[in-house]
Specification:
By secondary structure, this protein is an alpha/beta fold. It has 14 helices and 18 strands. The protein binds NADPH dihydro-nicotinamide-adenine-dinucleotide phosphate.
Length: about 400
C-alpha cells in the first residue's frame, strides 16, 4: 500500500516499528530515521527477516528542517510518523509542509527551554496544511490519542451530550528500581513536576503539583493512589466535546516515585536552567536523564498491568448516564511480543494505527486535527485487532 517515514528510534518508535512490520499490507516500506543511526540499524537487523515490510534506515537531526526535507524528498513517504521528542514537532511539520506530506505525532510541541506544552503552536499550521492539501494528525498515542478516540466514540454511540470526563491513567507495573521513568525521563519529569490543572466551566483551574489526590479501585488492578495532572488532551477535548463542563486527568504514582521526585526537586536536579559545571554548561534535568535507567531497558524487568481509560457522565434520551471505556495491558505480554514494556506499547500501537488511518485514507480531511475530530469507529476496531482491546462498563465507580 504505502511508505512511512518514522522519525526517532526510542521506546515508542520501537513498538510502532514492530507493529508496522506486522502490518506489511499497509506498510510496504518504512524508513527509520533518527539521530543515532546505529539504533535504527539494530532494529532493522532484528526485524527484517520476520516481515514483508522493506526497512530502510537513515541518520537525521530533526532539529534541522533542511535535513528533513532532503530525506523526505529522497524517500517520498505517504506519511511522516514523528516519534522523536516534542521539541521536534514544528521542524518536522515545516518539512511536511514544504514537501506536501502527511504528518502524525503523539505529543504536542514543547519549547526545549520552557516547561510548557500547548497546542497553539501546532494549531497555527491549520490553514497552511489545508491549503497544501495535507493532513496533520496530532496526538496519536494513548493519552493523548486513544483517550480522544474513546471520547469521540462515547459521544457518537452512548450519549447525546457528555458533561464530565475523568481520564484515569494507572500504571501498576513494577520494574524493581527505587526510581525510574517509563518513558523519556526528561519529558516525564517536566510533566509531573509542573502545576496541575483541570477544565471547568469554560476555563482551566490551576492546582499545585500533586495537590489533588484520589484513591481509585481500578478494574483488574485494585486500589491505587492517583493525582491530578495537567495533560494535553484537556485542551483539545474542551474545544471538541460539545456540552462539556469538566475534564480532569489523573495518573497513579507510587510512594517511592514521589519521595524520590521530591528529593530530586529539592536538590535542584529537575531544573531545566543550565548551570556551569567544570567549565561546561549543563542542564541538571538532562544530566539526571543520563544517570537514570533507559526506559527501553525496563521491558524485561517490569511486571504488572496498566489500565488507562475515560469515565464519562452525561445525558442520553434525557436521562443521566455514566460509561467507562478502558484498556488493560500486561507489561510482560508486551515484552514477549515486541520487547517493550506496556507504556511504550500503549503509545506505539496507536501511533501505527494513526499512520494507517492516513495511509489508507480512512481518515481524509485536509488541515491540522486532533484525533477526536475523526470518526472513531475504524480506530476502535483497529485497537482490538492490533493489541489494545478495549472494555466497557455501564456502572463504573465514579471519582469524587
Ligand atoms: P525516547 O527518548 O525513548 O526516544 C526518543 C527518540 O527520538 C530517540 O531515538 C532519539 O534519538 C530521537 N531524537 C531525539 N531528538 C532527535 C532529533 N533532534 N533528531 C532525530 N531524532 C531525535 O522517547 P520515547 O520513545 O519514550 O517517546 C517518544 C515520544 O512519545 C515523545 O514525544 C513522548 O512525549 C511521546 N509519548 C507519548 C505518549 C502518549 O500516550 N501520547 C506516552 C509516552 C510517550 P537518540 O536515541 O539518538 O537520542
Amino acid at each position: 500500500m504505502g511508505k512511512a517515514l518514522i522519525i526517532g528510534c526510542g521506546g515508542v518508535a520501537n513498538v510502532a516499528i514492530h507493529k508496522c512490520c506486522q502490518n506489511s499490507e499497509v506498510f510496504t516500506e518504512i524508513m527509520i530515521a533518527s539521530r543515532t543511526k546505529s539504533k535504527c540499524d539494530a532494529v532493522k537487523e532484528k526485524l527484517e527477516k520476520t516481515t514483508a515490510t522493506k526497512i530502510h534506515t537513515a541518520k537525521v537531526d530533526a532539529d534541522h528542517v533542511d535535513e528533513l526535507i532532503a530525506l523526505i524528498n529522497k524517500f517520498k513517504p505517504d506519511v511522516v510518523l514523528n516519534l522523536a521528542l516534542p521539541y521536534q514537532d514544528l521542524t518536522i511539520m515545516d518539512a511536511c509542509l514544504a514537501t506536501k506530506t502527511n504528518y502524525v505525532d503523539t505529543a504536542n510541541y514543547e519549547p526545549i527551554d520552557t516547561a510548557k506544552f500547548e497546542y497553539s503552536w501546532q494549531w497555527a499550521y491549520r490553514e497552511k496544511f489545508k491549503e497544501a492539501g495535507i493532513t496533520a494528525l496530532l496526538g496519536s498515542g494513548f493519552d493523548p490519542g486513544v483517550t480522544g478516540v474513546f471520547s469521540a466514540y462515547a459521544l457518537k454511540h452512548e450519549f447525546d451530550e457528555i458533561n464530565y470526563i475523568d481520564i484515569l491513567d494507572c500504571n501498576a507495573g513494577d520494574h524493581g528500581y527505587p526510581f525510574a521513568t517509563n518513558f523519556n525521563p526528561e519529558i516525564n519529569i517536566r510533566e509531573v513536576s509542573a502545576n496541575g490543572s483541570y477544565w471547568e466551566d469554560g476555563h482551566f483551574v490551576e492546582t499545585k503539583p500533586m495537590e489533588i489526590k484520589r484513591v481509585y479501585n481500578f478494574p483488574e488492578i485494585g486500589e491505587k493512589d492517583m493525582y491530578l495532572l495537567h495533560h494535553e488532551e484537556l485542551e483539545s477535548l474542551a474545544l471538541n466535546m460539545p456540552g462539556i463542563k469538566r475534564i480532569r486527568f489523573f495518573m497513579t504514582f507510587g510512594q517511592s516515585y514521589l519521595t524520590h521526585l521530591k528529593c530530586l526537586e529539592n536538590v535542584g536536579m529537575t531544573s531545566i536552567e543550565p548551570i556551569e559545571y567544570e567549565g561546561k554548561q549543563i542542564v541538571p534535568l538532562q544530566f539526571l536523564k543520563a544517570v537514570l535507567p533507559d526506559p527501553a531497558s525496563l521491558g524485561p524487568r517490569t511486571v504488572g498491568k496498566t489500565n488507562i481509560g475515560c469515565i464519562f457522565k452525561g445525558k442520553k434520551d434525557g436521562k443521566e448516564k455514566t460509561y467507562y471505556l478502558y484498556n488493560v495491558c500486561d507489561h510482560q505480554e508486551c515484552y514477549k511480543e515486541v520487547e517493550s514494556q506496556a507504556i511504550s506499547y500503549t503509545t506505539g500501537v496507536p501511533a501505527m494505527i494513526g499512520a494507517m488511518m492516513l495511509m489508507t485514507k480512512t481518515w481524509d480531511k485536509k488541515g491540522v486535527f486532533n484525533i477526536e475530530e475523526f470518526d472513531p469507529d475504524p480506530f476502535m476496531d483497529a485497537l482490538n485487532k492490533w493489541g489494545l482491546p478495549w472494555k466497557e462498563s455501564f456502572t463504573p465507580e465514579m471519582v469524587d
